[in-house]
Amino acid sequence: MGGRMSTDEQVTYEENDASDFGEHGFVKPVFRNRRYKNPFDTFEERTLSDVYKFRQSEDNSNVPWKNKQELDSTLPVVTPDFEKLSNPPKDAVQMMWVGHASVLVQLDGLTILTDPIWGNRCGPLGIFGPKRYRQPPCKIEDIPNVDAVVISHNHYDHLDHESVVRLNRKFGDKLRWYVAVGQADWMRQNGCQNVVELTWWQEHTLTKDGKSYMFAATPSQHWCMRTLRDKNKALWCSWVVKGPDHSFYFAGDTGYCCAFKQIGNKYGPFSLSAIPIGAYEPRWFMRPQHINPEEAVEVHQELRSEKSVGIHWGTFVLTTEHYMEPKQKLGDILKQKGLDAGCFFTVKHGEVRTVPDEHVKS
Ligand code: ZN
Ligand code: ZN
To answer: How far is the CA of 158 from the centre of ligand 2 (A)?
Structure first.
């Protein structure tokens, strides 16, 4: 497990089934009839009638769409400190939350962007799907530098066509795109030149200015779909990035499953993890695909994350919980568990935060 892969090597598309948990018990995706499946017993498929019932459920999100003042006080959007982004600290991880699951992370001289979405809606053609209620804190064109983009899966709130086009326009072939198996063709068709496609537990080394950074695709419990016919033809994943001194974990979208202990054991501890805390109600429908704040804290602990930031909230209404509940519940749960509020925090849109690193060089 975990052999290095160059970009030229082909990922194998062998069929396998749920009974195969891979070498050393590392969980592997099921691949059957050209579609991926979750191997976890914590996953449950949702039927069309479930989706219909979910659409009928009471919406408690209560976003004050027309009251900008209220939104500015509950969810302020600040202009990023570009000076800091241009001169990241050498002895810490620096991050900026763009909104939703988009985070700019700087570690050991490398700048990574996760699931970039700048678009106004997350849906086909930019005219369908949920509309954003908090604007991005800056334009893509304002970001001083990006070396690599990691994509967790192809849902519209994580893979935004407009953002891909604009990132390519600004950074071109200098950008390295990391995707899970099945997604590289789409990336290339949409102008991405350096695409690395990995399956769970596969690693790739990026080198920059003589330094090496290890990227690994790791499991998540989720699914994929962009069109009516492509459900689960591409895989979903989370990402590990390890630099010489610091490390970062990006959970993407996920339900609670047994993968986090494995990821924590193999790659932890992490200097910083970005973990979803929003889009979880109603639980009967959302549980298999999205963790809630309580599960997010468990994930944080199982990953052996030193610090975590809550993402996937405060930007689009995807589910029925109150729009500020993820942040409040996260705080409550940390208190209940006797954990320090600073170990799993939220930030303002656009806020540049430095995450000090207490652990000894690994
Ligand atoms: Zn998703
Ligand atoms: Zn999502």
So the answer is: 6
Domain total in the chain: 1
Strands 203-208 and 194-198: unpaired
| Nearby residues of 142 by Cβ (< 8 Å), 6 or more positions away | 80, 82
CA of 352 to the centre of ligand 1 (A): 26
Q: Domain span at residue 334?
A: 66-355
**Residues 297-321 pLDDT 10s:** 999 999 999 999 999 999 999 999 9
Residues 6 or more apart from 56 whose CB is under 8 A from it? Answer: none
Tell me if 16 is assigned to some domain.
no
d(CA 355, CA 92): 6
One-letter identity of residue 139: K
Could you read off the pLDDT of 105-149 as tens digits, one per residue? 999 999 999 999 999 999 888 778 899 999 999 999 999 999 999
Query: Residue 58 CB: number of other CB atoms within 10 A?
Result: 7
